[in-house]
Every structure is written in C-alpha cells, then in structure tokens.
Amino acid sequence: MTYVKPKTARMCTFITAATLACPLLAGCVATYEGSFTRTGGPTQAPEAAPIACASGDGRGFFGVDVTVGTADQSRASLIRIVDDPMNGKVVRMYEQGEHTAYVDYRPSSCRVFDLTIKRHGMLKNGVRAMGGHVALDCDGPDGTRVVGHGDFDWCGN
After folding, report:
1. Are residues 142 and 34 in contact, defined by beta-carbon separation less than 8 angstroms?
2. Residue 67: pLDDT above 80?
C-alpha cells in the first residue's frame, strides 16, 4: 500500500483540473462573422461586417449588441438583436455614431427574419455570455431595406 501525502494529492488534483479546464476556457473567446447592407431611406450604409459583440445581459435585455463596420473602418454602427418575452423578436439598427436614432425591423416587415439567441452558462466579467444567429431581408418604416446575416458566440461585456 502506497501512502500519498495530502499536500501532494492536492497539487495533483489542481494540476489535473487546470489541464482539463484550459481547452474549455480557450473556446470562450467572442467570435462574430457575417455582413449587413442597408439601402434606401435618408442614409445608405455600405456593406458592413461585425467587428465586436457584447451581451445584452449586462444592459438589461436578452440579446446581443453587434458593432458592424466597413472594411476600411470609416463607418461603424450598432445592431441590437433582441428576443423580448413581451414584445417579441426585433433587430434594431442604430444610425452611425447615434444611440438615439434607430430603425426597428420586426418579422412582420421582413421576407426573411431568422433570429436565435442562446445564453451560455458561463459568466464573462460578471455578465452572462450570449451567442446566436440572425438572417434578415427586411423593409423598415423609413423606406430602408436591410439584407444580411450574422453569427456570433461568447459575447460578453
């Protein structure tokens, strides 16, 4: 019978747990891809791709804020993707540099409206990480049309 000192056993347990957790934690980095184009209305936006994402958990809604920008990074705007239990699913596109001027796109005004939000069980900086998918082909009330798709995952704060 071999005797293992308690301190050695604790160290082995810690090393084993750290070794197993490292591959899991490495997969917890925010990822985003896709493209969105808005035409018509008072302003037109060239094709833009996601450049960042943030969980709505810390902002008081079930969804994700996706920042989109042009290839040359000259323009950036915010797309808020929400699945609200009272008001349903909505994609809100803010004007460039504005946080008050926006257009809401809802399933009733869209030819394509596919929105999925998932909540991860892990907290990132105290905020529940979110992920999901959106695909749109919608007409806005201001005469705009937005066409695009995006996939995002592990969006924290």
Report:
1. no
2. yes
In a domain, 15, yes or no: no
Q: What is the reported pTM?
A: 0.76
Q: Provide the pLDDT for residue 38.
A: 87
Residue 58 per-residue DSSP state: G
Residue 24 lies in a domain: no
Report the percentage of the chain scoring pLDDT > 70: 75
Q: How far apart are CA 138 and CA 106, in angstroms?
A: 8
Total count of domains within the chain: 1
Segments forming the whole domain that contains residue 72: 29-155
Q: Does residue 2 fall inside a structural domain?
A: no
Instruction: Measure the CA–CA gap between 32 and 149, rounded to whole angstroms.
Output: 11
Count other C-beta atoms under 10 Å from residue 49's C-beta: 16
Kindly state whether residue 125 falls inside one of the protein's structural domains.
Answer: yes
- Beta carbons of 106 and 86 less than 8 angstroms apart: no
Q: Mean pLDDT over residues 92-116, rounded?
A: 87
Reduce the DSSP state of residue 48 to 3 states and report it: strand
CA–chain centroid gap for 119, Å, is 11
Half-sphere exposure of 51 (CA within 13 A, CB side): 14
